[in-house]
C-alpha cells in the first residue's frame, strides 16, 4: 500500500515501537495522527518528524484508562478527518508498570484489561464507520505471545492477581477481538490483524518490568509496518502473527463461545449496544 496521503492513527505513539512506526509512516508521506498522554514527548516526536522531512503529524492527548477519554479521542478524530485508512492499536501498559499491585481504571475495571483491551475495542468500533468509508483500510492490534485464558467468573482478577496474568489476559482478549471483528468485517474492505511484534523490545514497558531487552524497536516496528501496508497480507484478515510469521494463539482464541462471551461483556462494559 502506498502510504502517501493516507491517514493513520497510532495509539501510544510518543514512545517505543509506536514512535518508530509513526516516524516511518510520516517519512513515507502518511498523515500521522499521534496519541499519548505526554505533550512534551509528543512535541519532541513532531519536531523529529519535521526535521526528517516527514508530513506534519497531529497530536491527540488522551488517557486510555478512561472510557470517556477514549470516546472524546474518537470524536476529535472523526471531526478532524474525512478519512481514516489505518488504526494501529498500540497503546498499552506492561505487567509491572506503576507497580505489581492490582490497579483499576477510572471506570473501575482491572487496569490492564481496560487500557490494553477495552480502550482499543471501543475506539475501533467508534471509528469503524470512517474506516469503512476509506477502504481499503486496516486495523492492527499490537498484542503479545504472552497470553492467558480468560476466567469468565473472575475477568477482573479479584482473586490470585498477578500483573503477568493480567497483562497476558488483556493480550489474548485483543486477539479474540481481532478474530471476531475480522469475521464481522469480511467483504467490507477493512482488514484486521493482531501480532506479537518482537520479544522484549528495548522499550520503557520492558525496562519497567526489570527485563533485559533482547529485541530492537526496529524489529517490532517493521513487523507492525508490514501489517499496515504490506500487499502480501491483504487477504489474511483475522490472523495472528509472531513477528513476520503467521502463528497460532492460545486455544481460547479459537473458541467461538468464549469469543461471544467476551464480546457481550465488552459491549456491556463500554456501553456499546449489541448489534
Output the CATH class name: Alpha Beta
Low-confidence stretches: none
Element-level helix/strand string: EHEHEHEHEHEHHEEH
Oligomer class: single chain
Please give the share of residues in helix: 40-55%
Taking the sheet with the most strands, its summary is: 8 strands, mixed
Taking all Cα atoms into account, the compactness measure Rg is: 17 Å
Number of domains: 1
Strand order of the largest sheet: 3-2-1-4-5-6-7-8
What is the fold-level CATH name, i.e. the topology? Rossmann fold
Number of discrete helical segments: 8
Structural class: alpha/beta
CATH superfamily: NAD(P)-binding Rossmann-like Domain
Distance between the termini: 31 Å
**CATH architecture tag:** 3-Layer(aba) Sandwich
Please summarize what this structure is.
The chain has 275 residues and is α/β, with parallel strands linked by helices.
Helix-strand blueprint:
Layout: E1 7-10, H1 16-27, E2 31-36, H2 39-51, E3 58-61, H3 67-80, E4 86-89, H4 111-132, E5 137-142, H5 163-184, E6 190-196, H6 204-208, H7 217-229, E7 240-242, E8 245-247, H8 256-270
Parallel strand pairs: 1-2, 1-4, 2-3, 4-5, 5-6, 6-7
Antiparallel strand pairs: 7-8
